[in-house]
Write a structure and sequence with these properties.
This protein is of the alpha/beta class. The protein is built from eight helices and ten strands. The chain has helices spanning 40-48, 70-77, 97-107, 123-133, 150-162, 180-197, 208-214, 242-252, and strands spanning 2-11, 14-24, 29-33, 55-60, 63-64, 80-83, 168-172, 200-205, 217-222, 225-231. The strands form two sheets. A six-stranded mixed sheet has the order 6-7-8-3-9-10, with helices on both faces. A hairpin with a 2-residue loop joins strand 4 and strand 5 (63-64).
């Protein structure tokens, strides 16, 4: 579903990524972990087609974003969406929740997600179903982002993220700003949606415990290089890279 092959990226004289390679299967959750500045968010931008890599290749559902322009690039981008740490980054404060949730569907009128097939022409009904999928009541449809709690706003952002039924949802530190109890609720919601909507997650985080809970496999970035890639059940294996071991030790302190 996703192949990242020897991707390198520099900004001026600053090398951000060096020969990064990994792949993902449909329905998989892959954790991408590393400290600030390790290149995690840069990989997200490249997969989204928001920036171009210097060398290598990124292929999502047989689309090579570096080779696409204009209409073809726009068409390919519907297959990947992102949910940010701060939902305010994707929710327009001037729009009621129901309009924010269906905005991607308005931008791609030709896309008909399986779970919205029966109501594709009813905008409010689509929003209602999307809110229901993330555990929110339809009474919130006409509220504005500032009238919701942080956890509710993040659920709305997730509803928006799955609205096109993309192949891949990038989760960029999406629970790090939430209270611990709300974090658990959001993580469990994501697990339910993964099987229900048949979606894959690239789960970007600095929290290795959260990544182990969510993901089947974990990729570890250090200074723009992939230094470890393994099954989550092997996190405590003696074969781990020393940097991975340091991340585990820090999490246990």
């Amino acid at each position: 579903m996703l192949e990242v092959k020897k991707v390198s990226k520099s900004y001026r004289s600053n090398t951000v990524l060096t020969d990064v390679s990994f792949h993902m299967q449909q329905g998989e959750c892959l954790g991408l972990i590393g400290e600030s500045g390790s290149g995690k968010s840069t990989i997200a931008k490249l997969i989204l087609g928001l920036d171009q890599y210097d060398s290598g290749q990124i292929i999502l559902n047989n689309f090579d974003f570096n080779q696409l322009k204009g209409r073809e690039l726009r068409k390919a981008r519907r297959h990947v969406q992102i949910v940010f740490q701060d939902p305010s980054a994707s929710l327009n404060p001037k729009l009621p929740i129901w309009k924010s949730v269906i905005e991607p569907l308005e931008n791609y009128p030709e896309v008909i997600p399986a779970f919205l097939k029966e109501v594709r022409k009813d905008r409010r009904k689509m929003a209602e179903i999307l809110l229901e999928k993330v555990g929110l009541h339809s009474s919130l449809l006409d509220r504005y982002p500032h009238q919701l709690s942080g956890g509710q706003r993040q659920r709305v952002a997730i509803a928006r993220g799955i609205s096109l039924q993309p192949s891949l949802l990038i989760c960029d530190e999406l629970t790090s700003s939430l209270d611990v109890s709300i974090q658990a609720q959001i993580l469990n919601l994501l697990k339910e949606l993964k099987s229900e909507v048949n979606i894959s997650y690239l789960f970007i985080s600095h929290d290795i415990a959260t990544v182990q809970y969510m993901c089947e496999r974990i990729a570890v970035l250090k200074e723009g290089m992939l230094v470890d890639l393994f099954s989550s059940k092997d996190l405590f294996s003696e074969n781990r890279h020393p940097y991975t071991e340091k991340l585990v030790e820090a999490a246990l302190e």
